[in-house]
Amino acid sequence: MIRQNLAHIALRVDDYDKAINYYTSVLNFTLIEDTVMSPDKRWVMMGLPGSSGCTFLLAKAANDEQ
User: Fold this and answer.
1) DSSP code per residue over 19-56
2) Kind and range of the H or E element at 60?
3) pLDDT digit string, tens, across residues 14-38
4) Region 8-60: CATH code
5) What is the pLDDT of residue 62?
6) CA-CA distance, 24 to 13, in Å (whole number)?
7) Which backbone phi and psi does 20 adopt, to 5 degrees?
8) Mean pLDDT for all residues in the chain
């Protein structure tokens, strides 16, 4: 049997900075990475403090269709 695990979960947000503040200040998650990809896109990874397991990506839609 092949071992499988969940690595990343994407969560849609309206504003990166507000979402980072909420997840770090209120829910006590850790900001793992915040890389600017373009003027409107960032690669923002969050995780549980001290965990090497599943992380989540804060994703901002580029348009209404997304």
Assistant:
1) HHHIIIIIS--EEEEEEE-SSS-EEEEEE-TT--S-EE
2) strand 55-60
3) 999 999 999 999 999 999 999 999 9
4) 3.10.180.10
5) 80
6) 14
7) -60, -45
8) 90
